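User: Hi! I'm working on a homework problem where we have to compare a predicted structure to a textbook description. Could you give me the structure for the chain below?
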Amino acid sequence: MRLMTRGWLATAFLLVALVLPSQAQQAPPTTGFEQNGGANWTTHAEELAFLDAVAAGSERVALSEIGRTLEDRPLHLVEIGAPGPHSLEPEPIERPTVLFVCTQHGNEPAGREACLEWLRDLAFTTDPTLVRQLEEQTILFVPTANPDGRAANTRGNADGNDINRDHLNLETPEAQAIAAIVRDRKPDAVVDLHEFGATPGVYDDEILYLWPRNLNVDPQVRQAAKTLAEEYVATGARANGQRAGEYGRQRVPVFDYHISQTAGDEDEGIARNLFGLRHAAGLLLETRVGGDPRTGLEDMTTTAVRQNRRVDTHVQAVADTLSYMRDHGPTVQFVNESSASRKTREGAEQSAPIYFDGQDDDGTIQGNGDADPTVVADPPPCGYNLSEAQLNEVSIAFLLHGVSYSLLPEGGAFVSLAQPAEPVIPLLVDDRGRRNAIGADPVMAC
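Assistant: Happy to help. Predicted structure tokens:
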């Protein structure tokens, strides 16, 4: 159930400001994008002032700096809970948690605007359903995951690196900051907000989605992400009069028949896959950048209308994700915790293959060419021996992925697969992995 539209919330905030005394008389802050009617995106300076105002005006909010970019811009984490941020409780407990990662690609800004609006709305809402959700769950936002790229309107960060290909090796400060959140806060669902360029008639829905497709992801975690995508995000978009589909899936224009899947591979450096490998229901969302006559003439001709449509689509998807968490938060939390236990046991027993390529079934006649795994370790090793130099090379990634290891008397280290990070370790250290950082020696008997 969708609780509120952006217009409804704006009206509600105005009424609250009019009728309630004291602090409520000051209306909640607005983004630069809202102030100019969607003609221009919120600037970096406007975002910083907005976040400070939200944090100062609501006791529900904790605003923290979790890193700095190469150009020394802050990376922020916003935590929202009721009556206050749950991590600040004297004895915090693990509640179902959802994390929204916004605008990893700097030239895809609509997700950032939606996240800014939603974190404000949650900070000040009086809706009893949302307030109760904030009491029972934790909502996290990284409002701008690539501030340097947003400032330059570029896909990559200041070095030109694609952050959304760096979630395994963790060489960029932006990916490192996100990995630390996943390690420390253990989010149960992680939604990564992007935008895409459309191919008219073939690949042009208002919103596209995709779950973790890497075969090393626990099947129950994958299914939780698919449920979020298909039963909540897609259903919510269609109920709102928008077209929704699987990311990368091409169709025959006349019959709307899906014939191929040309994107959405198993790459372990991509956020949604890595989130799944770290026992979270990772989901990629992509909204259409270009105008479309089916959406209305103004969508084709008026920048503000088109940009508002892009933001509104993400706003709707965030609302549907919150609905999913209300319905399934405790369940997906249990699934993820069980996944970590299962992977630890599989690593100890050497009972599950390790896949270095291949992905889940794409459900089309013509796949993207590598759906069937060809490089598989079966039986898998029970661990890996690393030299001292190799350990130094992956030490930061180990720390941020929560990988434990034992130092060896002769130097170097042994890393066992009998731990929750079992799905990540071989992809990082085995030379059969497409993004492996080192060529560690597999150990077959422990």
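For your comparison, note the following. The domain at 6-340 is CATH 3.40.630.10 (Aminopeptidase). The chain is about 40% helix and 15% strand. Good luck with the assignment!
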